[in-house]
Structures are given as structure tokens and as C-alpha cells.
Amino acid sequence: METDQIEEMDVEVLSSMWPDDVGTQADNQFNVEKPAGDSDTLKEVDIAEKRTMADLKRLPELLNTTDQGSSQLTNLVRQWEYMQDHAVRLLREELKILTRQREEAEAKELKIIEEHNFETEEPENVPVLDETSHLFRRFRQKKRDELVDSKRVVIDEEFDTVAYWKQKALSLEKMLEASTERERRLIEKLNESLKTMESHSAPDILGKTDVEIFHGGGVKESEDFKREVLEKGKASKREITFETELFGSKTFLIYVEPVYNKAREKIGINYMGMEVTDQVRKREKMAKLREDNAVRKAMESELTKTIHITEETMRAKQMLATMSHEIRSPLSGVVGMAEILSTTKLDKEQRQLLNVMISSGDLVLQLINDILDLSKVESGVMKLEATKFRPREVVKHVLQTAAASLKKDLTLEGNIADEVPILVVGDVLRIRQILTNLISNAIKFTHRGKVGIKLKVISQPSFASDKEQNETSVWICCDVYDTGIGIPENALPCLFKKYMQASADHARKYGGTGLGLAICKQLVELMGGQLTVTSQVNLGSTFTFVLPYKVATPDDHSDDQDEFSDMVDHHQPEPDDTTEGYFQFKPLLGSIYSNGGPVMGNNFLPHKAMLTSPIKLINGSVADPSNSSGQSQTVQVENGGYMDESESAHQYGNGNGHRCPSKESESCSSSQASSEMESELTVSSPREEEKTETEVKETSQPKILLVEDNKINIMVAKSMMKQLGYTMDIANNGVEAINAVKDTSYDLVLMDVCMPVMDGLKATRLIRSYEESGNWDAAIEAGVDIKTSESEQGCERSTDRLPIVAMTANTLAESSEECYANGMDSFISKPVTLQKLKECLQQYLQ
Amino acid sequence: MDTLVAQLQRQFRDYTISLYHQGFLDDQFTELKKLQDECSPDFVAEVVSLFFEDCEKLIGNMARALDQTGNVDFSLVGSSVHQLKGSSSSVGAKRVKGLCVTFKECCDSQSFEGCVRCLQQVDIEYKSLKAKLQDLFNLEQQIVQAGGRIPQVDI
């Protein structure tokens, strides 16, 4: 470009600056300015101008050195700028034109769209009178947005091309077709409806008055309305429903106004009617919907409120249970410590204070147990067991227990009808709890006379539903009666309520927590029965509960039979105490025990402190007895269960604890292990025995016999005893135990129940028979090899009752009932802990 | 920075607690530990090893009894299980004892497959407990060797 510029540029010819008159003579010979002959040469010379490339680097140098150059440069620049501006101007104009074209095209497009748009619009016949008109509008909008496809014409081709217009034409044609089709259909429909209208004889309508067309009650109403308006002279509108021939029942909104002439006289009315049937219907529907909505919301809020309340209640109950639970642990700690204290040396005053502490603590623990029980039953967590048991035994035992700590001069009776089955299935623990509670109440409120339990079978009572009846269930009615102070009639209804006592005086005088009866009632009802009471003031009261039980038949898995059949000897005739139905107990007066079994006098203390079994009973869960929570609970309740002699607090608290659940049956056939154990025992613990021998030379040391076959249990028990400061002799089975007892006078025997050769129950029975009869005949008969040694003749063998404590593993055959029935005084449940041993020792070695 | 003794003690504590929480041991084991003092410093170890020997023997008996195909003496198995249950309950071997309960039920119902299965489980369980207690005792040893005192762990 620059080269072109240079070409086009007018080259200014510089005139000679040399003055003309200078150097004419002197320089003529040197004057070459005006060569005479050369002036033409220049004309002739043709400088062929050809394109030359300008050296850009050089060019500025050249241009800058001369004024001409710089002015030429600026010219150049100016030219270039002109060119650019020109170009810009042209482009701008181009742009303007294009923009204008585009706008025109858009306007055209809009116009076309608008022309097509009317098809998509729906008729605006939304009733204005309706309150819900806004809803309709919204609905329509929504419908349009979401449901109805846009009827816009979409062309793929580029705007303003042939293809574009072609496509547009095609689609528009289609749309036209569709619309004509719709039109045709509408016309068809119109013709149809015309026909129907005609068929209904249009003349029927045309030319008739409203009265003639319409039927129904609305006619009179409209007449009245018209008359009213005429009279009042006020225009008003009203909805009236008419019946029509053609269309059925329709509702019209009629507006009537009076017409006045110029003289202000009424000459008539103007009457306008609008059909609002649909609207009315919709309105009613809406109202109904709103009503339903409101009702539903109310129900929901009620429900949430109820849920809240229930939740709160549950939480409160849960909290109560937890709190009680939490309270129990430290409390049993306190009681436990108090008991340990009581084993130390105390003076009289201290002991008295301590006794008060212990009894108070026990009372509180019982209360907590009650609360827990109650909350458990109420919250439905309590699970009932179904175990086989002998009702006669249970009754006997409850009475025995009560008699053992009876301080008043009362007679305790038990009477079981013959038709009551020997063996039934039920929750023996709970039943015992109920009985004990009722008996203790009876004893508490009776100062003279008798207290008793009566069992009999009844036919299905009225309150039981028919579906529960089946052949193998019996209804047993149990009366707990007394000749006590009675209950006034007005107090009867509140009796079973929680925390209620018959009166405030009663509460003060007799103490108690008021929870016992409530628990009993809950339990009875939980088991499907009923608890009622009848009473007469100063004559006595009778508490009656009726429960269904399933009759059980002794089979392979039942307790006694198996055990005995596995024994080596079958010669010993078993005492038949299963059918005895009548017992009577008196306090502290020796045994009037009418059973044909081993002597069980009442004038001893063993029943008072029941060493308890795992608390899973109290928790009502039938879980594995070995779970650790059960274990820890054991310790606590034992403390709670222990009672001092001078305390005659509620015994039913003990009833809670002193049952071990009967589980599967045991068969104690001989095991090889036992013989091996013996030898190993002597090998493995020589060190212990050495030490203990050196320790035990004092004569004041009590003699304890441990009868156990499992060497590990022996090791643990021995070690525990050592820590408590005692030593023990060991026997590995019942026979050895008998021999040991025969030869040595022991102060206490810890008897494992399940052992080979001869089990603990049998051994105890034989020992008791010796105590009773003074000889070992029964044992010899049983096959025990009684070695008569010199020591027997030597020492004064007392026939004082030897305390025998069972160590049970909580199985069916080892239930505490069995233990007592066979002559045991008490029991410890395995595994043996320091605490259990300590308590046992405290009790029997005082 | 913990000393070696403190580290070991912490390890011991954590391991013991975990054994209780996982159900390997229960409170009866705690009782056993109470019986260990200067007079009988290895009491727990002795009892426990005696227990494991007993396990082995009883399991052997039961396996032999169950091996008499067609002529299994379930009462024999049952009595061995009873023994094992008593032992495990005395030492606080919670899981073993739990298995024994199930085992007893299988014996009572004379279910051969059940018994075999239970036997296997008991075998596994006592061995794993043995290993764990071994670890525990090793930790004790280490603590003692490092000059520390075995900490009392309250569960």
C-alpha cells in the first residue's frame, strides 16, 4: 500500500536554489546547471518507473531527516485514516439496513403468530359470581402451561428461505385442517343439540312464561319473591331451584327489580334469570371439601396431641423405672454395707441402730421393687412364664414361710380341694407373689383367729370369654381369708388402686406402701383372671382370685421321676406328698406338719432370709440366667432380701426373689469326670490346703462341709471361703457327704444338688432321716455303706438339725421347692459369689 | 509421652473392658479376681487353666459319645454339658455357658445335628476365650516385668 501511495504522491520538483547571476564568468567552465546541449537529454530520458519495495526501516530514517519527508508521512497517515473512516461508515450503514430488515421480519412473524393464536384460547366463560373464580383462572393457566401443547408453528429451516416458507405453509395448512375439523364437529354437536331441543318441542318453551316452563317448589318461591319485591319496592336477587322438563333440576339466580313509570308508580317487575346450577354445585362441593378438611385437620391435631400425651406418659414411666433402677443399686450398697457391719463387733446400742438402718433400707428396696414391678406390668413388658408346678406345694410353702416369722398367735390354714390337679402349668413365681402378698396382708390386719388359703376348681366363670376355653384348662379359685379387722364397704372400691390404703389411719398404724394389692390385681388380670374381695368389718375379709391353668401331666421332661430313675438305687420309697391337701401351721409350737415326709419344723429361722436367685424374675424377662445383668442384680436383691430376725416387714418382697425359674430337666447320671476330678483336686491345690491347714488350728473355727463334684467349682468355693476366713472339707457326692456327716459334726453343709452316685436332694433326705430317727437305717437301705467308726461312739453326736444349704444351678430339678421339700434349709444359686457365701455363713454360723 | 508401663497398663485396661463388653466374661470372673491376693497370686490363672483342661476333656468325652453313630448316649452328653455349664459359670466364661444352655436343650431333645453343632461352637468358643485370656495374662506379665502394677479394672 505504501508503495502505491508513493507512486501516487505528487513529487514536488525542487527549484534550483542556486542564484542565476552567480558564477557566470568564473564558473562557466564549471557550470553544469544549464548544459546547453543536455537539457533535452532529461526530457528524452524516460525513467521507467517500476515498483520498488520501500525499505521500511530505511524509509522512516529518510523521511524523518527531511521536512518533506515528515510532511509526506503525515499525509500518508491522514489518507489511511480517511480510508478507515470510510470503511466504518459503510459498515455502519450496512448494519442499520440489516437491523431494520430483521425488525420487519420479526414484526411479520408476530403478526402471523397472532393470527394463528386465537385457536388456542379458551372461551372466557368463568362465572363471575363464584367465589372460586380465581381458582378457575389459575387452573386454566396451569392447564395451558402444563397440559396443552403449544400450538406454535415450529419450522426447522432457516428463516426466509424457500424451504422455510414451504414448511410453514405445510404446517399452517395442517392447522387449518384441524381447525376446520373441529368446527365441523362443533357444528355437528350443535345440530344434534338443536335436534334434541326441537324434539323436546321448542314451542314448549318459546312463548311460555317462567311459571309454565318450570315445575317444582321453586315456582311458588319465585312467585312469592316477585310479589315481595313488588311490595317492598326493592330490587334483590335470590337463588331458586326449579324443575324443568328438558333439563332436570336447575338452579337459577334470579334478579327482580320493580319498574316504575314516570309517575313513580309500580307497574311491574323486571325479571332476569341466570342459570347457576353448575356454580351452585361447585360451591357446595367446595364447602363440603372445606368442611372435610377442617374435620380432618381437627382429627390430626387430636391424634398428635394423644400421641404426645402417650409419649410423655411412656417416658415418664420409663423414667420412673430407670430412676427406681438407679436408686436400687446404691441403696442395696447401703444395705449391704449395713449388713456387713452387723457381722462386726458392735455394742448393744450400735446394733439397735444398725437394725433400724437395715430394716428401713429393706423397706425402701421393697418399695422400689414394687414400683418396678408395677410399672413393668403396666407398660406391658412383664412376661409370664409357663412352668409346671404343684399348687399344693406352693400353698404349703407360702404358709410355712409366713408361719416362720409369725409373731402373733394366729393359725395358718391351707385347704386344697381334691379335684385340684396335682400338676398345673402357670407362672409359679407370680402366683406365689400374689399369695404371699395376700397372706401377709391378712396376717398384718388380723390379730386373732386364723388366716388361710383355700383352693378349689370352678367351672368357667362369667367374665372369661368363650374362646379361651379348652379341654385342658381348669379354672382354680383361690380364697385368702382371715378373721381380721375387715374392710369398710366404702373403702372397697379403692382397695386395688395404687398407693391407696383403706384409710389414712390404716396407713399410719400398719405401714405399708399400698402397692401390693395393685400389683396383685395387675398380675391376676394379666394372667387372665380376676381378683375380688368381700369383707365385713371386725369379722374378716376374703380375697378371691380366679385364674385359668392348663393341666399338666408328668411326662419325660418332668422333674422328679427322671432324677430318681437315674439313681443307682430304687429301694428308697419316695414320700408321697403330692396329694396331701390340708395343712395347718402354728407359730413356734413345733411341727403339726401332717405330711408324710421329712420333718420340717417351723421353729427355726431359715425361711426368713431367702438367698435369692437372679433377678431376671423381677425383671420378668425369661432370658438366659447367665447374663451379666442378671448377675449384678443378684447381688443387689440379695441385700434387699435379707431380713433381720426382729423385722416383720412385708414378706412378699421376699416372695419376689426366692424362686429360681424351672427350666429344663436335668439328668444326673454318673460322669467319668468326677473320679478324675477328685485326684486332680488333690494334686492341684496342695498349696492351698497346706496353708489352710496351718491356719486352721483354732477350735473356734466352724466346720463346714462342701459337697460338690465339679472341681473347678470346688476350687472357686474353697478360695472364696478362705478369703472369708474359713476352711472347708470336701465331699464329691451324696454318699461321701453322708459318711462325712456321720463321722464329723459339721456346723454347715453346702450341698450341690446335681452330683453323680447320689445327688444332694437324696443325701439331704437321708441326713434328715437320721436326725429324725437317730439311726442310719434309711441310708443303709439306700445302699450307703455306713462304716461305723470309733469316733462315732466317742463323740456326742447331737441330733440338732444340721443346716444344709443347697447350691442350685437353677434347673427344673433343682427348684428351691424341691430343695425345701427334701429337707434343705436354704439355697444359694450358682455361680457362687463371695457375697452369697458371706450371707449364708452369717446366717447359719452365728 | 507415656511410659512403657503406663501404655501397657492402658492396654491391659482396655483389653479387659473389651472382653467384658464383648460378652466373653461376666461378673463371676470379677469375683475370681477378688480372690487373688498375696497368698495366692496366680489364682485366676490356675483356675482358668484348670477350666480349659476340663473343657478339653469334657469336649473329648462328648465328641466320643456323639461319634457312636446310631447309638448316641444323649444322657452322657447331657451330663458332660451340665458339668461344663457349671464350670464355665463358676469362672465367668459367659459365652461358653450360654452355649452350654443351648447344648443342653439339644441333648434333651436328642437332636444329633444340634448337639454336633453346639459341640463345635463350644469348642471354638473355649479356644478363643483361652487365647484371649492368654493374651491378657501375657500383658500382665509384661506389666510386672516392666516394673509396674497390674491395674484394677472396674467394669
From TrEMBL, chain A:
Q: Which CDD domains match?
A: HATPase_EvgS-ArcB-TorS-like (cd16922), HisKA (cd00082), REC_hyHK_CKI1_RcsC-like (cd17546)
Known SMART domains for this protein?
Answer: HATPase_c (SM00387), HisKA (SM00388), REC (SM00448)
Q: Which UniProt keywords apply?
A: Coiled coil, Kinase, Phosphoprotein, Transferase
| Coiled coil (residue ranges) | 88-115
Q: In what ranges is there compositional bias, type Basic and acidic residues?
A: 686-700
Range of residues in the leader sequence: none
The catalytic activity of this protein is classed by the Enzyme Commission as 2.7.13.3
Q: Which residues carry this modification: 4-aspartylphosphate?
A: 752
Could you tell me which residue ranges the Histidine kinase domain spans? Answer: 322-551
Give the InterPro entries listed for this entry.
CheY-like_superfamily, HATPase_C_sf, HATPase_dom, His_kinase_dom, HisK_dim/P_dom, HisK_dim/P_sf, Sig_transdc_His_kin-like_C, Sig_transdc_resp-reg_receiver
Q: Which reaction does it catalyse?
A: ATP + protein L-histidine = ADP + protein N-phospho-L-histidine
Tell me yes or no: is Nucleus among this UniProt entry's keywords.
Answer: no
Feature: compositional bias, Low complexity: 667-676
The reply to whether Acyltransferase figures as a keyword in the UniProt entry is no
Q: Which Pfam families match?
A: HATPase_c (PF02518), HisKA (PF00512), Response_reg (PF00072)
Query: Gene3D superfamilies from the xrefs?
Result: 1.10.287.130, 3.40.50.2300, Histidine kinase-like ATPase, C-terminal domain, PAS domain
Give the Response regulatory domain ranges. Answer: 703-845
**Protein name per the record:** histidine kinase
Automatic annotation (TrEMBL), chain B:
Q: Where is the HPt domain?
A: 40-147
Q: Cellular component GO terms, alphabetically?
A: cytoplasm; cytosol; nucleus
Relate the protein's function as given in its record. Answer: Functions as a two-component phosphorelay mediators between cytokinin sensor histidine kinases and response regulators (B-type ARRs). Plays an important role in propagating cytokinin signal transduction.
Under Gene Ontology molecular function, one entry of this record is: protein histidine kinase binding
Q: What is known of its domains?
A: Histidine-containing phosphotransfer domain (HPt) contains an active histidine that mediates the phosphotransfer.
Task: Name where it mostly resides.
Answer: cytoplasm
Kindly provide the name given to this protein in its UniProt entry.
Answer: Histidine-containing phosphotransfer protein
Q: Which UniProt keywords apply?
A: Acetylation, Cytokinin signaling pathway, Cytoplasm, Nucleus, Phosphoprotein, Two-component regulatory system
UniProt superkingdom = Eukaryota
Please list the residues that carry the modification Phosphohistidine: 82
- Note the InterPro entries from the entry: AHP1-5/YPD1, HPT_dom_sf, Sig_transdc_His_kin_Hpt_dom
